[in-house]
Amino acid sequence: METRNCQNCKNDFVIEPDDFSFYEKIKVPLPTWCPECRMTRRLAFGNAWGVHFRNCDKCGKKTLTMYRPDNKVKVFCDPCWWADDWDGTEYAMDYDPNRNFLEQWRELRDRTPHFAKDALYITLKNCEYTNAIAFSKDCYMSFWADYCEFVYYSAFLTKIKDSIDIFRAFNSNLCYESVGIGNCNRTYFSNECDSCVDVWFSRNCYNCLNCFGCVNQRGKTYMIFNEQYSREDYLKKLEELKINTRTGIEKSYEKAIALWNSLPYREYTGNSRNLNVSGDYLYESKNAKHCYMCSGVEDSKYTQFVSVPKATNCYDYYGWGNSADLIYECATSGEGVSSLKFSFGMFANGLDSEYCGWCIGTKNNFGCVNLKRKQYAILNKIYSKEEYEVLKEKIIKDMKENPYKDSKGRVYPYGEFFPPEFSLFPYNDSNANKFIEKDKEQALREGYNWQDKVENSYQKTIKGNNLPETIDETTNDILNEIIECADCERGYRITEGELSLYRRLDIPVPSKCPKCREARRFSLINKPRFYESECNKCGKKIKTMYDPSQGKIVYCESCYQQEMN
Ligand SMILES: [Zn+2]
Ligand SMILES: [Zn+2]
Ligand SMILES: [Zn+2]
Ligand SMILES: [Zn+2]
Question: What is the pLDDT of residues 207-217, one digit of tens each?
Answer without folding.
Answer: 999 999 999 99
